[in-house]
Backbone:
């Protein structure tokens, strides 16, 4: 009986809970390859998830309503209840941000391939920044940085070529090459971060870590995209090749910097990007990377 009473007394919170549940179930169904049929150019699952997320956004912006109090105490109580309701909805929205959103982009091989290719200009720019960073370092530190990042240009060129090849022909054989290259590049980045962390000069270390992280953020984003079209067995093979884990380099990463890169790429608020970065990093580590 209390269950139904709570729903009646707190309709917005209850509705938010239902919408969170819909988005969560949609995520699980999408990850299992269950679409429940087509809906336009997407799927029924993606449509349900998108609607649930949109409604959550509308609810979060909807001002609290209620009867006006006839005294100052009544108005204060109403204000307190409204503040509590807003806080609850804010918490629900934060949880929603942490839910994986790949199904909203279709989760098709072609869609993922295009998303990977869309990252390549940012990747090439980040690698170019790495190439120019050595000049900013102390003379004793520049050789260490150069040695740690020497393979970035070749790795970037190969990854970009394979991403474009996968977009043109999203076959199993091309995907296998892409899987191998993204893990190889990720390992180069992680190793470079550990080497840069050994630089003693504080300013040199800061420049070095920031430049490498610019590449690393994009590599993790592409790795996540590649995983979304990979089987569990393939992901296990990929993670087995990951000798230097993300957990080992996480202390040297600036979360705000990664969020800025993701926010700029997807033209979204930094707060949203920060939640996405945190979720993606955790998922990668859970997968063994």
Residues:
């Amino acid at each position: 009986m209390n269950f139904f009473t709570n729903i009646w007394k707190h309709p917005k919170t209850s509705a938010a809970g239902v919408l969170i549940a819909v988005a969560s179930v949609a995520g699980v169904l999408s990850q299992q390859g269950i679409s429940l049929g087509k809906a336009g150019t997407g799927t029924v699952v993606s449509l349900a998830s998108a609607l649930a997320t949109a409604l959550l956004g509308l609810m979060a912006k909807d001002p609290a309503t209620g009867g006006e109090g006839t005294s100052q105490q009544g108005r204060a109580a109403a204000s307190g209840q409204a503040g509590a309701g807003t806080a609850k909805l804010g918490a629900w929205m934060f949880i929603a941000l942490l839910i994986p959103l790949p199904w909203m982009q279709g989760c098709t091989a072609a869609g993922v391939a295009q998303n990977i290719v869309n990252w390549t200009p940012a990747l090439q720019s980040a690698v170019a920044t790495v190439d120019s960073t050595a000049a900013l370092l102390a003379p004793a530190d520049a050789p260490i940085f150069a040695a740690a990042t020497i393979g970035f240009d070749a790795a970037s060129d190969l990854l970009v070529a394979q991403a474009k090849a996968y977009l043109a022909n999203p076959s199993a054989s091309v995907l296998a090459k892409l899987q191998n290259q993204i893990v190889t590049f990720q390992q180069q980045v992680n190793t470079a971060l550990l080497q840069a962390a050994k630089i003693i000069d504080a300013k040199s270390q800061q420049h070095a870590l920031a430049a490498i992280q610019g590449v690393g953020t994009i590599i993790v984003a592409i790795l996540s995209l590649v995983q979304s079209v990979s089987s569990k067995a393939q992901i296990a093979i990929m993670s087995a090749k990951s000798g230097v884990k993300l957990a080992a380099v996480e202390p040297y990463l600036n979360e705000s910097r990664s969020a800025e890169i993701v926010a700029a790429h997807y033209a979204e608020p930094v707060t949203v990007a920060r939640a996405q970065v945190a979720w993606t990093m955790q998922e990668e580590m859970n997968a063994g990377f």
In short: Strands lie at 38-39, 42-43. Residues 2-97 form one domain.
